[in-house]
Q: What sequence folds into this?
């Protein structure tokens, strides 16, 4: 028999799969991920008491499927892509500007408009580094629950708004909402051993050496090396890609567990303002990158949109944008954000100790 926690996980994933399947009948972008997220969020809000006491979605399971997404992204790295890296200098410079402006704007929104204390507003407004922001915010005496909720909403709202916005921009559904498939043609079970090797080795590498978003970047790196070296590019079948989205979406939705509805509504409207402001800024900067470098506008926008690395990589894949370039930009954004908040935290501690 299954332990209660295992049974709960199985039921949640099945419910998420049903939600994802139903979502494929709608124009919802990334239906398997967002459909499962909506269902699990509903469970977290309305029926958390029915879950086993202290239930947490098993992170090892989530890591496995994030690694699978990393393998799929890394397989996109080809010699032709490597030739494009010098052209990323301008986009990385623009991304540096974006991080500073977005964080400053978010601080103003959360502190002056939302009434959060300075520490909570500062760490809630970081445009990346969710776990780092929570850890540093806790050390600074900020409200960790608020930080986690605002950071979570940032990711959720971005991965929802960006595909919808691009669909409106082009005047037709794009990516998964338009029926695009994420898997290469004629991908079968024979590909799975190569995927398992790349995923397992990459996951070990990413976690062992504490790479940024290592559960994604480690497998991405190993798969990229395999692709560039001629060993072979691991290819995932559609069903495995859909399963990965369901697991990731289900685990994200459960983060709503235990939050008061009044706190959620307050965080939601602040999150809407914050994300709208960041996406407006990102759109302006993406248009500038597009004009200067001739990078496709959707790639530039997705590269600047402040979602999580895994989630934005999935968005890139669903929109047929280059996920390797997008992931590189987002990893840089997270590293830059962590460096920024680390430096500012030290400056603040120095000032406090000097008083």
A:
């Amino acid at each position: 028999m299954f332990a209660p926690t295992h049974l709960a996980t199985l039921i949640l994933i099945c419910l998420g799969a049903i939600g994802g399947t139903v979502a494929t009948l709608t124009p919802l972008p990334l239906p398997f991920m967002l459909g499962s997220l909506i269902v699990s969020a509903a469970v977290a809000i309305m029926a958390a008491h029915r879950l086993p006491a202290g239930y947490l979605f098993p992170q090892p399971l989530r890591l496995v499927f994030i690694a699978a997404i990393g393998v799929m992204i890394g397989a996109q790295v080809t010699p032709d892509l490597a030739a494009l890296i010098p052209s990323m200098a301008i986009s990385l410079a623009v991304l540096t500007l974006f991080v500073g402006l977005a964080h400053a704007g978010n601080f103003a929104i959360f502190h002056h408009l939302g009434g959060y204390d300075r520490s909570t507003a500062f760490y809630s407004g970081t445009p990346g580094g969710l776990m780092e922001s929570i850890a540093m915010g806790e050390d600074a005496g900020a409200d960790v629950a608020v930080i986690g909720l605002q950071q979570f909403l940032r990711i959720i709202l971005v991965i929802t708004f960006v595909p919808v916005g691009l669909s409106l921009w082009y005047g037709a559904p794009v990516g998964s909402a338009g029926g695009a498939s994420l898997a290469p043609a004629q991908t079968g079970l024979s590909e799975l051993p190569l995927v398992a090797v790349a995923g397992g080795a990459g996951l070990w590498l990413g976690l062992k050496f504490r790479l940024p978003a290592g559960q994604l970047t480690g497998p991405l790196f190993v798969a990229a090396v395999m692709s560039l070296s001629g060993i072979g590019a691991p290819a995932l079948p559609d069903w495995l890609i859909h399963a990965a989205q369901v697991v990731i979406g289900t685990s994200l939705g459960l983060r709503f567990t235990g939050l008061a509805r009044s706190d959620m509504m307050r965080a939601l409207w602040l999150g809407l303002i914050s994300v709208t402001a960041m996406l407006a800024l990102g759109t302006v900067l993406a248009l500038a990158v597009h004009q200067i470098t001739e990078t496709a506008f959707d790639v530039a926008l997705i590269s600047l949109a402040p979602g999580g690395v895994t989630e934005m990589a999935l968005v890139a894949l669903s929109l047929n944008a280059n996920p390797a370039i997008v992931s590189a930009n987002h990893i840089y954004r997270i590293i830059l954000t962590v460096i920024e908040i680390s430096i500012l935290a030290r400056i603040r501690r120095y000032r406090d100790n000097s008083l």
User: Anything to note?
Assistant: The chain has a mean pLDDT of 84. The chain has 15 helices and no strands. The CA atoms of residues 195 and 234 lie 5 Å apart.
